[in-house]
Design goal:
The chain has 351 residues and is of the alpha/beta class. The chain has helices spanning 6-21, 44-51, 120-148, 150-159, 188-191, 196-212, 224-239, 264-267, 274-277, 285-296, 302-305, 320-350, and strands spanning 29-38, 64-72, 79-87, 109-116, 181-186, 216-219, 247-248, 256-257. One of its GO terms (cellular component) is centrosome.
């Protein structure tokens, strides 16, 4: 008999919630969802496996993948189920973002954006595309939710400001992401060998973006110490474990800034001479930082940056026998199309 798939296991866990709630043992089940998006081959799977204490080598993520974890804080205490979603392909599969984010899951949903620090020229377009598409969809879901449950939608809009103190000087200058957001810079072990000025620009830019969106920001690598800190942050999102209050803003060390603890005055202005800022014709602070960043790290052309849309044609999944059969089927399909076209033309001619 075939083993259960992860989808079947997840479904069973959700269905079990109702039956366990009627057993009268005082145990409740809390559920949260964490959605990992980010750079292709940026280390998302590695972080998820580390958080779930799974000692297995990470495999390339194809399209959208799901797994889950369970954690109880002690005997007869609330049991928590965390749903982990991961979007593969970098920015090539943006349409799949809409699948895990629904009006049913949104109130307990968090997003983790993992950016590859070793590829600074890809960093801004990857970050911008993923955040814009995700935010746009979430805004639509909240609007839809407001039509059926205005109280829940209103609470969500108020909750996004909870990480920022009421007297924070930047309260009127930022635009928090609609749900909890964590930005992780991966491959710090490579990044730390960059030129000091490059590191400064990347650090300041990411600090601004994270602060503007009311997000937490942290760097990680294969270092066990850094992975443990990241694990603590993800556990807070997934299982409600206490949030860390530590902070490190030193560009010569891995950044670790919890949401709400940074400020525009500490971050400073973009790394460009004051007399050049006016020449950039930026319409907003975010656009200004983008223009300055791309001046130092120009994005690759659309042709080289664009990921392969069809995973079946991705070289990393190449298998000679399968690929040969795929080519044969593609040729048969083209032949079928040509024959069909000729048939329709003949019918039109005869008529």
């Amino acid at each position: 008999m075939p083993s259960e798939t992860l989808w079947e296991i997840a479904k069973a866990e959700v269905e079990k919630r109702g039956s366990m709630g009627n057993e009268g043992d005082g145990v409740e089940i809390g559920e949260r969802s964490v959605f990992f998006i980010g750079s292709k081959n940026g280390g998302k799977t590695t972080i998820i496996l580390r958080c779930l204490d799974r000692d297995e080598p990470p495999k390339p993520t194809l399209a959208l993948e799901y797994t889950y974890g369970r954690r109880a804080k002690g005997h007869n205490t609330p049991k928590h189920i965390a749903h982990f979603w991961e979007l593969g392909g970098g920015t090539s599969l943006l349409d799949l973002i809409t699948i895990p984010i629904t009006s049913d899951t949104l109130r307990t949903f968090s997003v983790v954006l993992v950016l590859d620090l070793s590829k600074p020229n890809d960093l801004w377009p990857t970050m911008e595309n993923l955040l814009q598409v995700t935010k746009s969809h979430i805004d639509k879901v909240i609007m839809k939710l407001g039509k059926t449950n205005s109280k829940a939608a209103s609470e969500m809009r108020q909750k996004i400001w909870s990480n920022l103190q009421k007297d924070h000087p930047d309260r009127e200058l930022i635009d928090p992401f609609p749900i909890p957001l964590v930005i992780i810079g991966s491959k710090y072990d490579i990044f730390q060998d960059f030129d000091s000025e490059k590191r400064k620009i990347i650090c300041k830019t990411l600090r601004f973006v994270a602060h503007y969106y009311g997000a937490s920001l942290m760097f990680t690598s294969k270092s066990e110490a850094l992975l443990l800190k990241i694990r603590g942050v993800i556990n807070q999102l997934a299982f409600g474990i206490d949030k860390s209050k530590s902070i490190c803003v030193d560009q010569n060390k891995p950044l670790f800034i919890t949401a709400g603890l940074d400020s525009l005055s500490q971050i400073g202005s973009p790394s460009v001479p004051d007399n050049d800022i006016g020449k950039l014709n930026a319409r907003s602070p975010m656009e200004l930082w983008k223009k300055v960043y791309e001046k130092f790290f120009p994005p690759k052309s659309i042709h080289t940056l664009k990921d392969i849309k069809d995973p079946a044609r991705d070289p990393q999944y190449a298998e000679s026998e399968v690929d040969e059969m795929r080519i044969q089927k593609d040729q048969e399909l083209e032949q079928y199309k040509r024959n069909s076209s000729k048939s329709w033309k003949q019918i039109e001619f005869d008529s």
